[in-house]
Automatic annotation (TrEMBL):
Active site, per annotation: 226
Source superkingdom: Bacteria
InterPro entries (alphabetical): Ald_DH/histidinol_DH (IPR016161), Ald_DH_C (IPR016163), Ald_DH_CS_GLU (IPR029510), Ald_DH_N (IPR016162), Aldehyde_DH_dom (IPR015590)
Pfam families referenced in this protein's UniProt entry, alphabetically: Aldedh
Keyword Oxidoreductase assigned: yes
Name the UniProt record assigns to this protein: Aldehyde dehydrogenase family protein
Amino acid sequence: MKAINPRTGETDYEFAESSRDEVAAAAARLRQRQTEWEARGPQTRAAALMRLADAVEVRQDAIAEKLSVDTGRIAVARMETLGFVGNLRRWATRGPQLFAELPQDASPSATPGVEIVPSFSAYPLFGAIAPWNFPVILSHIDAVPALMAGSAALIKPSEVTPRWVEPMLEALTAAPDVPIEYVMGGPEVGQALIEAVDYVCFTGSTATGRKVAEAAARALIPVNLELGGKDPMIVTASADAEWAARLALRSSIVATGQACQSIERIFVARNVAEPFLAALVKEAEAVQLTYPDPAQGHIGPFIFPSQADKVAAQIEEAAAAGARVLTGGKVERLGGGAWMRPTVIVDVTPDMAVMRDETFGPVLPVVVFDQIEDAITQANDTSYGLSAAVLAGSLDEATEVGSRLEAGAISLQDGALTSMVGDATNHSRKTSGLGPSRMGDEGMLRFLRRQALIRRVGDAPTIADFAEGTR
Ligand code: NAD
């Protein structure tokens, strides 16, 4: 397979797609290793994950360098690599504590003469299928707690961003006992992985998520889906307009808007709309592309070339239907890559694709509202329910409005906080996801299967107790 460099547009990397047999062989190797991995106990597994964290940290430059070629961005690639290190250390610390908190003692059953002893064991083989937008973080975000729980991990990174895997394999040689393997390729490899594992976590688009859920249903394995979003932000009448504009901009355009939790719809109260829009446009126009110097500026190219066309089509459709683009709005072809400056659009209507479909670009459609009730109704008028945000004059007001939004996680007095907070348990709503939380303690506990040892402590009934005429 070949991968395109998002900065140059050139196809400059080749890699071998894993065959179905190779996926099955990797799964078989991992299953063999998993028995010992689980048997060694949480403390020893945590120590191994800490060693992997150290090994990744030592090689962070090599990993971030390849990741920056995959994604066309340097600073975010560095943050992402260190984010993975943090994820390993967080679970290696919290995991053993969680195991210590698990119930171990026998408890009396409601059935007389019986006690129940709980026992926990991990799903042996965990599988992850990851997208291209945060390739390292999202390939491991569920795998690390699964490893901590005692599973082995088979990971399929996105075929769009494969380069970082080579230096990551180097890091794994310094922690060779951690049972991780990567299989490379596209949809077919994803399907083969689902057939090979005992539990699958998928991060990606809602359309592909449905296919993954169907395949998991055929294999009769649990599936967790973390899918797309169309996150709303409400700016209330009491909010400071310039403060809100700064937060709205950042929450929408970090990583060129290629983040599931990006703010993609803004509802602003009429009395602050004018200064808010003025500040938003001013701040947006101060943002620089990381071109021509990749080490200068704020936002990089589109990672996946056809994504630029999708975003452009949404903006063109909205403009043709009467929306006004206040700044940005054009795909710029520079040095072979596709770029877009922060784009502010007004006079949008709920039927426009830019208000209904996931955009995944640096685009901020702004709607002015008169009544907060109306803003809440419009914010909830979406098939997605990933996350949302509220900016208000007080935390109390933001909390009151936020608690009425239909999404898994609500950022108050900031936006897109889920990208920075790993321990906020939440369940994505509507078509944004399925299954337990990847964040918080549930992130690990979901990988533990509970077995009940049901023991008889009194006299067991005999067949005589079931004889006709005895009751
Ligand atoms: P995608 O759905 O196109 O692909 C994701 C992965 O699925 C890739 O590894 C791909 O090879 C694999 N795949 C494709 N077809 C498959 C099939 N039929 N069977 C099995 N696997 C298959 O997603 P993408 O374009 O790489 O990523 C962008 C999307 O991911 C956006 O919708 C974004 O919102 C979403 N996302 C969600 C979260 C979250 O936590 N909710 C985080 C990041 C990205």
